[in-house]
Structure formats: structure tokens, C-alpha cells
Amino acid sequence: MLFGTFDILHPGHLNLFEQARGLATDLEIIVSIARDVNVEKIKGRLPRNNEQQRLNRMQSVELIDRAILGSLEDYMEHIKIEQPDIIALGYDQEAYTQTLRNDLDKSGLVSTQIIRLKPFEPDKYKTSLLWPR
Q1: What letter would DSSP give residue 126?
Q2: DSSP bridge partners of 69
Q3: Which of 104, 110, 116, 117 is most exposed, with minimal Cβ within 10 Å?
Q4: Given CA atoms 99, 22, 127, 57 in this order, what sign does their dihedral have?
Q5: What are the C-alpha distances in Å from 36 to residues 4, 7, 60?
Q6: What CA–CA distance (Å, rounded) separates 68 from 115?
Q7: Inter-residue contact 117 to 87 (CB < 8 Å)
Q8: The pTM of the whole model exceeds 0.90
């Protein structure tokens, strides 16, 4: 399972999905799309594309198997439903990551691994650089 806003789709995101696909054999890649209200809370602004637009775009990406909308309030809600074996985090993801291991353990997901993926040309492929406000 991966998480993100994915306001645009760029080569850095595609590399993220490829890295996640390489973590195990016979896996299903689930991408959780951040809800608009949570993006605004974390980033201080709404994404340019709303959550339904971002979800629709991600559903057509061949490197992932499923795209879903994240939870509105309790970020663990949809993680508990999906029960992923692995949570793959982007190199720059910080929201919720400080308490993620503890929250997984409290939810009974003690065997879920958390893996931090490597950056892919972050000075070139980052939404804030490609699509500045």
C-alpha cells in the first residue's frame, strides 16, 4: 500500500510504483489517494485536482492494481480494512509516519512492514517543482 496526493502524475511517481512492485512477488499494489480535506490540513492548501479527479487518473495507471480514497478522519481506518503486508512510503512522506508503526501495532497489524522507498531525481521530479503555485 502506498499513499499520496498525486495531484499530477510524473516520472517520480511511476518510479515509486516500480520500486513498490519490486518489494515482493505476487503482490497487489493499492494506492491510497489523500482526501481533499486532509491535503488542505497537511499542506495548507487544497490540491488543484479534486480527490475524485485524482482517483480517476490513478485508476488508469497500469503499475498499480487498485486506487482508493483514503479515510476522511482516522487515517488508520482504511489501512485496517485493507490489512496490507507492506506499507511503502515515499522518501519525503512525513505526515502520519512518526506514529505509523505504533498505530499499526495498536490496530493488530504487527506484521505489516514499513519500507521507505528511494528518491528518484527529486531535484527534477517533484510536484511542487513541476507545477508550482
Answers
A1: -
A2: 33
A3: 110
A4: negative
A5: 11, 10, 20
A6: 20
A7: no
A8: no
